[in-house]
């Protein structure tokens, strides 16, 4: 008997009215339409962003080509710029003993003390 009661309850749950089922289906359709619309608006804004990025790239390429043209004109007029190579200055290091040997000791007085 308990099995038949549970079956009846299950059948009632499963037999949701057609109007409820239709309303739920309609809500799902509306939600999916909203998602599609929002994604398409995002795609159109992404398309705008892509256009902006392409425009910036083409502008950058145009400026770069203008710079190359300008530098080639300058080279035509003044000739190619030669790099100036400076000789590398060689550093010389000395040991402290050699410095002390070659210098004369000085008398320095700080108060009462004399230092040599």
From TrEMBL:
Region (Disordered): 31-52
Protein name stated in the entry: Uncharacterized protein
Organism listed in the record: Theobroma cacao (Cacao)
Superkingdom assignment: Eukaryota
Biased composition (Low complexity): 37-50
């Amino acid at each position: 008997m308990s099995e038949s009661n549970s079956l009846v309850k299950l059948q009632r749950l499963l037999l949701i009215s057609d109007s409820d089922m239709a309303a739920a289906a309609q809500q799902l359709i509306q939600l999916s339409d909203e998602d599609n619309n929002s994604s398409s608006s995002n795609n159109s804004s992404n398309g705008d962003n892509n256009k902006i990025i392409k425009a910036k790239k083409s502008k950058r390429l145009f400026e770069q080509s203008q710079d190359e043209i300008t530098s080639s004109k300058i080279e035509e007029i003044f000739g190619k710029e030669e790099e100036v190579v400076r000789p590398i200055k060689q550093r010389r290091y000395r040991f402290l003993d050699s410095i002390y040997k070659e210098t004369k000791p000085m008398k320095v007085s700080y108060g009462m003390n004399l230092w040599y």
